[in-house]
Amino acid sequence: MATTSSRRQRRDAVRNREQLLEAATRAFAERGLAVDVREIAREAGVGMGTLYRHFPTKDDLFRAVIEPDLAAWSELTERADAAPDAWQGLRTFVESTLELMVRRRAILDGLGGVAQDSAAVAACQEHLRDSLASLVDRAHGQGALRADVSAADIGLQIMALGRIVQVTAEVDPEAWRRHTGFVLDGLRDGSGGSSGGENRSS
Questions:
Q1: Which of 139, 115, 150 lies closest to 189 in space, CA to CA?
Q2: What sign results for the dihedral spanned by CA atoms 178, 171, 63, 100?
Q3: Is the Cβ–Cβ distance between 70 and 94 less than 8 Å?
Q4: Dihedral over alpha carbons 134, 120, 71, 113 (to 10 degrees)
Q5: Among 111, 113, 137, 197, which residue's CB has the most CB atoms within a 10 Å radius?
Q6: Do 96 and 78 form a contact (C-beta atoms < 8 A)?
Q7: Which of 40, 56, 72 finishes a domain?
């Protein structure tokens, strides 16, 4: 009898954890990190005690939600880095990263805050930096990317575009695509920007 009861408790615990993760994934995607954990527990159909047994803090819950997304992000980075045309790979990397931010509105805040001390996040960030540096080097070698643009510059542009994703989500959810085009046009070699901001006159 005790064994049967223990098995049922384990099944219930697994089900509750899955329901919490599903509810949290939806909530963080739709409302960002500001969402109240009480809303997540209510949507999952569990009590606060159950939530805290599985995830003692909101940060713990967010890390559990974000880590699968980071794995997917690493995979798309590898595909982009493997593209023979480095510029196309770079474009794919930027656009796919922003599409992930559209689906997961909290990811930008998470990478800059609560998720920083996650080993999975740290490993993903290192992998992303290495892959992006490789893409940038190849794009320079193929003459597709402005010589004065670094991998760090690309990363900062992605973060800036991520903010556009956030602030226009309700009023113009596709605005980020237009602004991404502006940024990519400015990064491409020969697109009209002069290194060092020199003002040329005829």
A1: 139
A2: negative
A3: no
A4: -90
A5: 111
A6: no
A7: 56
